[in-house]
Design brief:
7 strands; single chain
Length: 230
């Protein structure tokens, strides 16, 4: 039994492993080489999938990532591309500058970033410029890793804020519990005093009843005296 695996120049893949939470991106990102349409026609480019990222976030990260290449960065609204003119990428262009075109295609739960690198008439591809292609592959993979890191950092901040909110909620609950227990202690003291007051009141009632009976006798004596004077 023989298993044949065929790898063609048009589809080469590079894997980048990033330590991200399970709820974030998948641990592997794939760089794929393919020819596709862009502002300069149908050219060879490199694409990478950015799990859990939207196009706006991906572009924001790319804009910051591309600053290291010191090119003139601008957006081509007509073609929905991001152009880095005369970028300095030593590992790809050597002493010469290159032009980079980046486009983002947003899916349901991911964004695909595609980059075309113009060496000055020819575009980076694995057939004619294998070394430069390998460096371009690394660059795009590092960009994807940067996206994943920033996503994870944002998620970390969100989870830390959630934790802080929960800790505040716990503190409020503990304070409420403390107040409720204090209320119970206060009520116990009030109940104890009320019980004492009840006993005092009952004693007072008995004493007053005795006084009333005594007073009745006094009243009767006075009434008898009054009658005797008639």
């Amino acid at each position: 039994f023989c298993l044949l695996v065929l790898v063609t120049p048009s589809v080469l893949m590079a894997q980048v492993t990033a330590k991200t939470p399970e709820t974030m991106a998948a641990p592997k990102s794939l760089v794929v080489e393919k020819e596709s349409t862009m502002s300069q026609g149908s050219k060879n480019g490199l694409s990478i999938n950015l799990p859990k990222a939207n196009a706006k976030f991906a572009e924001k990260v790319w804009k910051d990532f591309a600053k290291q290449f010191k090119g003139d960065y601008k957006r081509d609204k007509k073609n929905d591309e991001y152009f880095s003119d005369n970028a300095t990428v030593g590992t790809i262009g050597g002493a010469n500058t290159v032009d980079m075109y980046m486009k983002f295609s947003e899916g349901n739960d991911n964004t695909t970033a595609t980059i075309w690198i113009d060496l000055g008439g020819a575009y980076v591809n694995s057939s004619d410029y294998s070394d430069k292609y390998a460096e371009a592959e690394k660059m795009l993979a590092n960009y994807a890793l940067t996206v994943a890191r920033k996503q994870t950092k944002i998620q970390l901040e969100e989870q830390q804020n959630t934790q802080k909110d929960l800790e505040k909620e716990l503190k409020r609950a503990e304070e409420k519990n403390k107040n409720l227990n204090q209320d119970i202690e206060d009520w116990k003291k009030k109940i104890q005093k009320a019980e004492q007051d009840i006993q005092t009141n009952l004693k007072l009632q008995e004493e007053t009843k005795v006084k009333i009976e005594s007073q009745k006798k006094v009243v009767e004596e006075v009434q008898k005296k009054l009658q005797s004077l008639n």
